[in-house]
Amino acid sequence: xxxxxxxxxxxxxxxxxxxxxxxxxxxxxxxxxxxxxxxxxxxxxxxxxxxxxxxxxxxxxxxxxxxxxxxxxxxxxxxxxxxxxxxxxxxxxxxxxxxxxxxxxxxxxxxxxxxxxxxxxxxxxxxxxxxxxxxxxxxxxxxxxxx
Length: 147
Known about the structure:
It is a single chain. The protein has a single domain (2-146), classed as Small protein B (Small Protein B, Chain: A, Beta Barrel), CATH 2.40.280.10. Helix content is 34%, strand content 37%. It contains four helices and nine strands, in the order E-H-E-H-E-E-E-E-E-H-E-E-H. The strands form two sheets. A seven-stranded antiparallel sheet has the order 1-8-9-2-7-5-4. A hairpin with a 2-residue loop joins strand 8 and strand 9.
């Protein structure tokens, strides 16, 4: 299992309630590009539409050895493969509880490209400040222990 992309900002902006693993629908050149590490999850999000989940705003760069790809959009929407039961459950939680789906990381499992995403609640500003303060205090304690 090799991590190809990690969304570090997501853990800072959201509190994760539940995580899920799903597959992605990609074309051949996109798979090659992702396995080469040319993918970014920064600013990406997951949207539910017509009973399906879609990964939006995820950058997968063009794979140059595949030759000219005329109408390739690196930010195109990509379908997420998940069981219907789980999709319905997630859609219900998103609509009723005001939660959101946040992509966390993309990795390979055997030769498949997998996406880990979380059902999350956005953190308030004061919660983010508390995390920063705790990190600072922990860092200072570690420095004092070294002395």
